[in-house]
Structure formats: C-alpha cells, structure tokens
Amino acid sequence: TVGLAPLESLRIAVKNVIAQRTARLDVAAPSEVQPLADEINRLLDAQEKALSRARSRATDLAHGLKTPLQVLSADIRTLRKKGESDLADEIEKSASAIRRHVERELARARLAPGVSGDAACLVREVASGVVAVVKRTPRGRQLSFVIDAAEDFIAPVDEGDLSEILGNLVENATRFASSVVRVSASASAGEVIIKVVDDGPGIPEAALHAALVRGVQLDSKGGGNGLGLAIVSDIVEAYGGRLEMANANSGLAVTIHLPRHG
Q: What domains are there in the chain, each with its CATH number?
C-alpha cells in the first residue's frame, strides 16, 4: 500500500486537473511514472497556450468588427432619413446577426479553458457596481433597486463572471419591472443562491424555456439581442451550477444555484 502512495497522489492530481481545480499536475511521482506526469504537463501547457491564442483572436475579431459595425449603424440611420426603410431594415438585420455571433464567441472565449475552483467574490459589492451603472440609464432612473446580501457574503465565482451574470439579469429585469428590481444572495444545502426578481408582467409559462435559447427575444420593447440569458446560463454551467426561471407573484424570478467549495 505504501508503494502505491505516489500513484494515488498522481491519480488525485489528475482528478483535480479534470475538475479544473488546478492547471497542472503538481505531484512527486516515482521515477517510473514521472515521465508520464511531465508529458501530461506539457500537453496541458500547450493546450493553455492554444486557448490563450484563441481568446486573443476572438478579442481582435471583436475590435476589428467594431468600427465597421458602427459605420453600418450610421448608414442605416442615413437610409431611414432618406425613406429607404426596407433596405435599412435588411442591413440592420444582418448587422445584428454579426454582432450576436461576435458577442457569443467572446463569451465562450472568456470561459476557456475553464474556471478556477478558488474563484470567489463579494456579491453585494459586485451587485452594487452593476446597479450603479443601470441606474444611470433612462429606464433605470425610474426604478428602485434593492440588494439583499450581507456585506461579507461570498459567492464561489470570479468577480468578472458574476458582473457579467448580474449585468445581464439586472438589465433584463430593468426593461420589464414596474417599480422595483431585487437582487438577493443566500446559502442553502451546500449551494450559494443568487436571485434577481422584477415586479413586471412575467413571461408566459410556455415561453420560459425559449427564453434561454440563443437569439430568441421575448421582449417587444427591443434593446436586447437575445443572448443575455444564454450567456448567463453558459457561465453558470461552467461553474457546475444551474439557472432557473419562474414567474413570481408579480414579475419574473431568475435564480442562480452555484455549488459551494469545500
């Protein structure tokens, strides 16, 4: 049994890599096994470099398309002023499709090659930052925002990812709320639960599943691109969590369940 201890350590190290708790094998292996561990680490390093290049290319692509898309937006406005609404609508439809694909790929690139098991941030701090931005919008100035989370409450998620999650959810809630948007955080049964609730009309029960389909817009008010909830769902799943949507007594409740570490 003692002689198998190094192999057991190697097995645990591989398990941690698969679970994305570590990026490399960090284990003292016997001489017969060390070459295997070294080779695995070389493969992991090569994968990380390839993914890093992919993220950089995705970012470069987004920046490269930003100016052409802005030019297209200006051309669309010019066409509308000239009364060529049909052509403007066609161009706008194509530009929106390009923008959706770019944003989707950027979101996917941000998550590669996985998330750290040590990620953590203060929910109230992140939520306050998101709300501060939304309150500066015309619609946000008309609403009240309530954040129900202790100052020291920690969620097992990267600060940037939680900001992306809450940014999308609070923005969606703001479009539909009648008077108030609530953000809450609590812990239960080994989970961290984050909830965003508005007091708007809610969503027809038959459309709840469709709300998570990429590119599907359920709001007739415009201003969205149908990617927000799908991106949120992808980020949550990357952390081993899940997203739930349900109509509350008044409005829509979106609940994020994240597993607690340790």
A: 1-114 (1.10.287), 121-259 (3.30.565.10)
201 upstream amide cis, omega within 30 of 0: no
Range list of β-strands (E), 70-141: 121-122
Torsion angles phi and psi, residue 231, rounded to 5: -65, -45
Q: What is the DSSP letter of 247?
A: E
- pLDDT over 90 (residue 51): no
Structure-token match 């590119």, residue found: 215
Nearest to 120 by CA among 145, 70, 162, 155: 155
More confident residue, 55 or 129: 129
Quick count: other Cβ atoms within 10 Å of Cβ 42? 11
The answer, as to whether pTM is greater than 0.70, is no
Torsion of CA 234, 239, 240, 245, to 10 degrees: -50
CA distance 257 to 208: 18
Confidence of residue 104 (pLDDT cuts 50, 70, 90): low
Q: What tokens does 75 get?
A: 């051309």
Distance CA 41, CA 13 (A): 11
Cα(234)–Cα(246) distance, integer angstroms: 18
What is the model's pLDDT at position 180? 96
Tokens for 70?
Answer: 């802005």
